[in-house]
Specification:
The structure is a homodimer of 153-residue chains.
Chain A (H helix, E strand, L loop, with lengths): L23 H19 L7 H12 L5 H8 L3 H13 L3 E5 L7 E5 L1 H21 L5 H15 L1
Helix pairs in contact in A: 1-5, 2-5
The structure holds a DNA duplex (23 and 23 nucleotides).
Amino acid sequence: MPTAISTRPVAIDEVDTRYLETLLGYNARRVSLAVIEVFLQRMADYKLRPVDFSVASLIVHNPGITSRQLCSTLGLLPPNLVGLINALEKRGLIRKRPHPTDGRASGLHATAAGISLMKEAEVAATSLEAEVATRLTATERVTLVRLLKKVYL
Amino acid sequence: MPTAISTRPVAIDEVDTRYLETLLGYNARRVSLAVIEVFLQRMADYKLRPVDFSVASLIVHNPGITSRQLCSTLGLLPPNLVGLINALEKRGLIRKRPHPTDGRASGLHATAAGISLMKEAEVAATSLEAEVATRLTATERVTLVRLLKKVYL
DNA sequence: TATTGTTATACTCTATAACTATA
DNA sequence: TATAGTTATAGAGTATAACAATA
């Protein structure tokens, strides 16, 4: 028999989050925020926020990539990328060059300084992630990333 | 031997995302956004955005919970919860009642209408998640949620 | 003195409309 | 006619400071 519903108002001492914790979206968001929190701290040295980092990393690994390709890859909107790209260029981390076949577009290239910075930043990012996921074994971490990719890729 | 670096500018036909895809934060964020996208569509019927849903669900499952407890549980800031709570109250989904022991706080309670709506909304949320994670087996989904919780809990 | 809830406000992030130059 | 990039702007989300009421 279920317990009778209390008629007297009662203070909650421990919050029951069991339903929310069954949800993939809830848990994915919590992990995302947990990583971002540490990311912002550690990557402040490089003056790179998560999106800056993703964009710069893609430029390093894809010399000549266009803004349009960055947008569709990362799910960004073109107007929101303009300032970001210009800021990276102003810092001397990337350079716009004429696109070889499309006169409307620019090919984005990392400078030597950009490549150097991102080499360090990527090591730092990978390292801080290991720190955040410290409760997971190496195998569990690989499994987690594999399953996450399987959801959206 | 590695291939020599091309001196001629070349257009990128397929974007290499392999580095980013090794990152837990990147993948968690992508999954989070993928779920939110479908969530916003499906839950528009209930006029519940992700945070509204989380708050209302916690109130249903924790009658008498305070704003302060909602904030610390969900990682929200008190000022940002005020309007949200008032909107739910205005819609007749929740009610503020005096807190039994703390005169500063209010105990939040779902109304019959709120309980009814959230019963449907939770079914819809669970259902849409299964849809988003359709590429995962039931076992994989359980594993994914377990590993995500292990990261931040 | 510390905490709950609130107001006002600022900052960041994301989204929409419209324009230009080129395809 | 469609697309890449841009500008301007609007909206949503998140953050800080300061206050009244109560602990």
